[in-house]
């Protein structure tokens, strides 16, 4: 980015590493200076929770509001019925309206932690594109909107081209998605004066489509701003762990497990992640990232505390840190560890430790649990676990049993009261 912005928002975005590209830096900058700018990011309701892969863009919306913008979280109640084909190798499973609404409700719990949906000039809005998509008349839509799209150009977008180059099927249903997303931007501009769409750089083609459509239909100038697609320094996709997605809803991933994900950040990523995922001053983020030796571990604790506090509250972050210190430094149990509660009926005459490892989330399958034990990667109450066939009865579980997979992942198993 060679343009030197005058607005606080673009300055902060540039300084903290949020910006991949913008359709018109100067135009967006001038709009931001001149008054309250509504801006949106779209989220299809494909799961009951957002995950860490969404967090950079959520933080972008948070900064947008803190620095005077009006954030819009656009829920894809309509587009989820189609499914975004961008950079996917297959078609998304289609969801029914009840499941879509349940997912939107779950995602809304996360947004409420980061954004203020108050009544002020820049109070956030949560909208649903089903509001305008569900009632579309197909023939009118083709005539008024479809005529502005060139199939030749749509085929040239990388998200579509990569699928076709691999000779993987792209249904007409999915091919319509980019038209619907472009129409979202048009409707948000027409109804709410929305001037900017933000999103990951994989959405560039969809964003540009919306800008072109709005210019053709309404003759309005609007803008696009994208964030880089983030990977960890060791090349892994951001937001994935050995146990799957890092969910942002506390019911799907405990605050302790969320805290642990950030505590386990690779040394080289600490400074960069602090800039993106916390509100610590940039100078402090750079200081933390420059630490070495044992000091970098304390920097990771600060990172984990700050990110967890934003999502789950400061008390949850402090509890997670205390649990981690109890588990790692003192060899204790820690009251905030993920806990599997079993009834006496479930335990019966005994339950295998391999099964407990799976049910507590430390392994995905029995085969994986047995391999973990065979490779000396499992412990029970901090002692090496060598027998995959070990059976635990109700008496053995009368006091909580601590299971460990490697050095960093732990869970408790106990009988329900």
Automatic annotation (TrEMBL):
A cellular component annotation (GO) from this entry: cytosol
Gene3D superfamilies: HUPs, RNA-binding S4 domain, Tyrosyl-Transfer RNA Synthetase
InterPro entries (UniProt xref): aa-tRNA-synth_Ic, Rossmann-like_a/b/a_fold, S4_RNA-bd_sf, Tyr-tRNA-ligase, Tyr-tRNA-ligase_bac-type, Tyr-tRNA-ligase_bac_1
GO process terms (BP): tyrosyl-tRNA aminoacylation
Catalytic activity as recorded in UniProt: tRNA(Tyr) + L-tyrosine + ATP = L-tyrosyl-tRNA(Tyr) + AMP + diphosphate + H(+)
HAMAP family: Tyr_tRNA_synth_type1
Function of the protein: Catalyzes the attachment of tyrosine to tRNA(Tyr) in a two-step reaction: tyrosine is first activated by ATP to form Tyr-AMP and then transferred to the acceptor end of tRNA(Tyr).
Entry protein name: Tyrosine--tRNA ligase
């Amino acid at each position: 980015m060679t343009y030197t912005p005058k607005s606080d928002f673009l300055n902060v975005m540039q300084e903290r590493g949020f910006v991949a590209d913008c359709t018109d830096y100067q135009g967006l900058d001038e709009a931001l200076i001149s008054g309250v700018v509504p801006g949106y990011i779209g989220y299809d309701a494909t799961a009951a929770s957002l995950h860490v892969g969404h967090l950079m863009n959520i933080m972008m919306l948070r900064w947008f509001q803190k620095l005077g913008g009006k954030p819009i979280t656009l829920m894809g109640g309509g587009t989820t019925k189609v499914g975004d084909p961008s950079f996917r190798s297959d078609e998304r499973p289609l969801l029914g309206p009840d499941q879509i609404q349940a997912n939107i409700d779950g995602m809304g719990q996360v947004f409420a932690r980061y954004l203020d949906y108050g009544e002020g000039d820049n109070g956030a809005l949560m909208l649903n594109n089903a509001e305008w998509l569900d009632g579309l008349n197909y023939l009118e839509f083709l005539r008024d909107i479809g005529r502005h799209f060139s199939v030749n150009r749509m085929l040239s977008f990388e998200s579509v081209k990569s699928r076709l180059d691999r000779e993987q099927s792209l249904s007409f249903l999915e091919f319509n998605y980019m038209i619907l997303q472009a129409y979202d931007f048009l409707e948000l501009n027409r109804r709410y004066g929305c001037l900017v769409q933000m999103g990951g750089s994989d959405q560039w083609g969809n964003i540009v489509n919306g800008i072109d459509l709005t210019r053709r239909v309404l003759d309005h100038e609007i803008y696009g701003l994208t964030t880089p697609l983030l990977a960890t320094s060791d090349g892994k996709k951001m937001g994935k762990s050995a146990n799957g997605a890092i969910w942002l809803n506390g019911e799907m991933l405990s605050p302790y497990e969320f805290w642990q994900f950030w505590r386990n950040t690779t040394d080289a990523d600490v400074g960069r992640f602090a800039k993106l995922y916390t509100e610590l001053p940039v100078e402090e983020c750079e200081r933390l990232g420059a630490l070495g030796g044992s000091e970098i571990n304390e920097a990771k604790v600060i990172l984990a505390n700050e990110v967890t506090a934003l999502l789950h509250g400061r008390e949850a972050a402090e509890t997670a840190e205390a649990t981690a210190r109890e588990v790692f430094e003192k060899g204790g149990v820690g009251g905030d560890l993920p806990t599997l509660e079993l009834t006496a009926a479930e335990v019966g005459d005994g339950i295998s430790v391999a099964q407990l490892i799976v049910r507590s989330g430390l392994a995905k399958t029995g085969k994986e649990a047995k391999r973990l034990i065979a490779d000396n990667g499992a412990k029970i109450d901090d002692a090496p676990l060598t027998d995959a066939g070990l059976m635990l009865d109700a008496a053995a579980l009368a006091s909580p049993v601590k299971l460990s997979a490697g050095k960093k992942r732990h869970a408790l198993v106990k009988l329900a009261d």
